[in-house]
Amino acid sequence: MARRFEVTVLGLYALFISIVSARHEPWNDETQAWRLAIDSKGVADLVHNARYEGHPLLWHLMLQALGHLSRSWWPVVVLHVVIACIGAWLVLRYAPFTRLQKVLVVFGYWSAYEYAVVARPYGLGMMLGFAACVAWLAPRRRVGWTIVCLVLMANTTAMGTMLALALAAAFVFDWLWPDGEAQHPSRRVRVMVTLTAGALALLVFLIAVRQIRPPADAAFQGTTPTSLSRWIIASIPTFELRALLPLVYWRDTAEWNQWLLQPDTTYMLALVLLLAVVYLAIGLLIASRRRVALLFFVLGTGGFLIFFGFLFDGVGRHHGYLFVVWIISAWLACSGAPSERPVALRRLNTGVEPSRGNLLVLSLVVPVLATIELATSDILSPFSDARHVADVIRGAGLLNAPIIAVSGSDAQSVSAFTDRPVLFPLDGKMRTFVVWGNDKSYARAARAADSATTALLTRHCNVVLIASSAHEIASETAARAHMLYTTNFRPMSGARYRVWVASAPASARCPAPRNPAAPAPSAPQSKSTS
């Protein structure tokens, strides 16, 4: 019966995320990592091109290896779905949860949408975190495999690095001071293990930081607040709610990354803060069943809250690792007998034990509702408009015309689906991915694009410019160009496009068309007719 349950739920999960992934239209961050990986010439070139990305390179290396088999986007989708399914299988097979709890975890927002459908390295880190738990908690502890999982996780994202360090500290503590009747190692062994584990953790941390830390000339150096207001301090605990209550605004479509409970008044902040404190208390009660779980919850949750509050505020996909900490803490807490020491913890467990499972179930309900909200929206409406913009350019017969990236990240995602490089005017280079570098303000890019347009029209009859609907191109460019397309709706990602075409004066080299093409219509909001 247990095996039938696992297979049935896993099959339904795989079917669900496959359908949503097939309908999902990738956006800037997804296509950036993909094209940077497959269009870099070898590992050394990948390391150089990715120096501004702010991520370790494990995901990029996997994509580069995949690119040797196919340059299509669909193998990336398959890889990401497989990673998500492995993570779900680990929960269904090994997590010490009830069947209801397992279903809620697997179909929660982070497991079934954000880290399963949006193809980024965060789902890989979550899966490796689950695998590390399985290896550590196995009847015959797999220390080697635990270390492998932690090292790999540390090389997925900055969030993965922090999660791996917190898990490593908890596992070392669990080995040095185990619960129950397990024999405690001698003091000499304790010192040797602590020093070895500390040295290994430091080495892994330094390697990850070397990959994450942006160069000195990077335009983005984090979001450290210049001053600490009472608003900032009070907002720090609310990051926990962004992970556990990940509902978003819905205006015609779900507005991804637009958190529904984002406070905009002092009264609203006070209510959200109070709710966050309640959730943090529930997390402590769930984790307090075993010392290793409580230690991990405090280290993981506290570390991420401090990181988001003082170093990098992040967005939803970053905050989701607080949910990963929540699940792994519950996993560790429910594995084995409750801790008998200290006495205060044993007394607390005696009172909380009957309601601990119900508290965990209640904490997992809202993320499932968020899955329904976001997945439904992704099926019915476009997540991104990049693929349609590429079709518009192709349909207008302009695929072979030079394309200028006025808005770099937006043009990059269109370039991914035309499979042609675009000109980044501030760099003066043709690429299919963005190298962020130093100041790339929109105003400077617009001026550089106008100069590039002038130069290109001496050799080409048409030049395509891809801009953002939130900004205008240079007035000199607009005077000699016509708008081919504009996104007249809000995609889930919020990225809207404007496509301009500048044409050379009619001449023997560039004869005027007999039937000039009319501007392409804007994309419909429903996928069924796009």
How would you describe this protein?
With 530 residues, the chain is α+β, with helices and mostly antiparallel strands. It has 2 domains: 2-26 and 73-215 and 229-380, no CATH class; 386-529, no CATH class. It has 21 helices and 8 strands. The protein has helices at residues 2-23, 28-39, 42-49, 58-67, 74-94, 99-106, 109-114, 122-137, 143-154, 158-176, 187-212, 230-235, 239-244, 266-287, 291-310, 316-333, 343-380, 386-395, 408-418, 442-456, 475-479, and strands spanning 248-251, 253-259, 403-405, 422-424, 429-431, 462-468, 481-486, 497-503. The strands form 3 sheets. Strands 3-6-8-7 form a 4-stranded mixed beta sheet, sandwiched between helices. It has a two-stranded antiparallel ribbon with strand order 1-2. A two-stranded antiparallel ribbon has the order 4-5. A hairpin with a 1-residue loop joins strand 1 and strand 2 (253-259). Helix 1 (2-23) packs antiparallel against helix 5 (74-94), helix 2 crosses helix 4 and helix 14 crosses helix 17. It is elongated and about 90 Å long.
Task: List strands and helices in order, with pairings.
Layout: H1 2-23, H2 28-39, H3 42-49, H4 58-67, H5 74-94, H6 99-106, H7 109-114, H8 122-137, H9 143-154, H10 158-176, H11 187-212, H12 230-235, H13 239-244, E1 248-251, E2 253-259, H14 266-287, H15 291-310, H16 316-333, H17 343-380, H18 386-395, E3 403-405, H19 408-418, E4 422-424, E5 429-431, H20 442-456, E6 462-468, H21 475-479, E7 481-486, E8 497-503
Parallel strand pairs: 3-6
Antiparallel strand pairs: 1-2, 4-5, 6-8, 7-8
